[in-house]
## 1
Amino acid sequence: MAIEPKNFGFGEDETMLRDSARKFMADHCSADKLHSLVASDYQIERDNLCLWDQSLWQQIVDLGWPAVCVPEANGGIDMPLVAAVALAEEIGKAGFPSPLLSIFNSTFILKECDSPAAQQALTGFTTGKTMTLAITNQAGSWQSEDTDVILNDDGSLSGAAYFVQDARKCEQFLVSARGSAGVGLYLIEASAPGLAIIPDSIVDLTRDQAHLLFDHVTALEVASPGTGSRAIDKAMPAILCIVSADMVGAGEWLLQTTVEYAKTRIQFDHPLGFFQAVKHPLVNVMLQIDNAKSLTYQAACAFDHSPEKAEDSARMAKSEASDMAVFSSSRAVQFHGGIGFTWECYVHLFFKRQMHNQVMYGDAKYQRAELANSIIGPIS
């Protein structure tokens, strides 16, 4: 069994990357700016728009973040998963709207695909190409054999993919499709004839989501039929770590913001934080965040150094982070009192992001059930 490094393998390079991301977000994506960008219109009948700052995204591309985990052979930086997890945490803490996390998820699947097309796609991330996953069916399953997309005899794709994240921010989609020889993975351009991108109305204002309809869409094979399932399964622990890190970051924002409010809001001649009914639950939020963060970085370290433990570790992280997301959100709204549920209070942005994240790729209950199956076997 491989020996895992100290501090989850989080060294000087990863620390510098995290610190630079933290400064970038503080300089360019304050809560004020985020709210004015995505929540300027409170009307429920507002248009379903994809709101993000593409000039800031170009700066991120110039900084090389999309290529952090791309192999050196493809022009990338070739850092471990813990580096992407650190970036995801800072993205979550800022609620930053971008396709970065979708690119990370695509990267880890492409790295499991042994084809020239996959290598070329990885190289594209170093030049600013954007990509997201289209691997989930209408029932919400991302298990590759459950895909609703079919590989036609002429190599084109027909069917539908659902719950596609950052769909209107991305130029390419990585699609799982079922053929007679099994499930393969295919790249489709967002501008491809026969592809319809139907935006979904979701609670999370910092993201956009859509479902895709395919009508004999021309596709580029990156994993041959029968090998796509393995690529998704191998990459899924990394994907769970990325989502968990995003929740950790958002939880940290909710905690820090609520603590500051509890220090300054005076009630019965005392700050709110004076009362045990407030400060004790906030300590519990802090403990849950610490638990989720430790499990997330441990899972990322396992993915990098102990692959045999990666899946179970990632499910533990996602389970804890999902529970923390719900608890941190509810306490933040509750302890902000009468303004906590208003549109003008920034808490709702991170509350909604947490609610979206906690169900992505399985909520806490789902992850614990899968862990039980893995550790003790299915109950007959």
## 2
Amino acid sequence: MLILVSSALAFESEPVDVLLQDQSELFTNVEVSTGFVPSGSPLQVEFRIEANGGAGVEMEGEGSLWWPEALTLDFTGKPGSGIYLLDASIDAVATVRVDLWGTYTDDFEVDRRSIYMDGATFFDPFVMDGAVDDRVEVIDSAAGTELLNYAFDIFLGVSLQFTADMTPTFTAGFEGVQWAVNEGTILAEGAPATMAPERAPDYLVESVFTALWDARFDLIFTPTISVCAPVYGCFDVLTFDIPLELLSDSFEQDFPPALYTFPLPLLEPGLSAGDLGTILPGTISNLEVPLTNVGNLPVFGDATIEGDGEFSVYPTQFNANPGTTDGLVITFAPTVDGPQTATLVLTSNDPSIPMLTIPLTGNAETPANPGEDDVPGEEQVVVTEEIGGCGCDTPGSPATGALGALAAAALLVRRRRA
């Protein structure tokens, strides 16, 4: 069961929760004047605007780290967890100029008011390139407000009537630009960053999310001139829309930096090289290799022997929870005289050392005058001193040699049957 659990976590760290929050000032005491528009019209208007606006964003998601090719990091938003809040105010003063073909000209202030714009929208984080929705937008449009209703008699019983409506619209937008993560960068949805692994029980990610904020204040001014006469009543002779883009702003801003911790497996072998000594041909020497997990995620892997030497390893798989030790037994069973070498290869889910090699050496030597008790080929097994480690998965247990004894007994049985 332990191996199955470790296999499930083999090449992926535990995900971390991500919460991003930031606020931005879109406009701060920004003043603008349109001048009198439209030029040459008998009815013109000037808007003087002072705007203050802000917005806030909150997003939730999780970060994932996986390997073995390289440490790969990506962030996935929690659907519907993003919220964009708009809070803005506009102080507007409208002045009208009436110019009736030189017969009547006057400027007068017709409106002074504060307009409050707000709104909210929910979205799927993190609105970057490649996402289904790569931009969030909040639009607040006030209903058309009558600024002016003015009548002027030009002939006996005939008059001109002037009206003007104003429709303000505030648009605020937000979109993700990038994640800066250690030495890597994430520029789009589904385009993770790759980073070099470190020899550590945890991988620390320093992250900064950058977003593009923008805002625009538009105004549609709609003047209407009507003629009123007895019997005929009033009818419009001139009406048109004057769209005005009064304010706009766009800038990039970093969210507050965040630090994320991803646990990793970290394999620590009990030796860097193994010497199984000098023994008689036909005997065996065992060496225990403790494998300790000093990381914070289960470690597991395979053990193999490479080379022409007469070495074997048991078992061929290992597994250790954080803070525990598993073990292997290397057996040297020479059949001929002479030195031999091989390599113990440990392939594991440790991203810092996915393949670890340990050189092995051993020597077989037949004495010049063998005694009765050390004649090669007899049914005997010589077990050399075992070095360190244990064959268990418990933290801090002493070396017992149990795996070595089992291996020796198995080899003895094989020899007697032969």
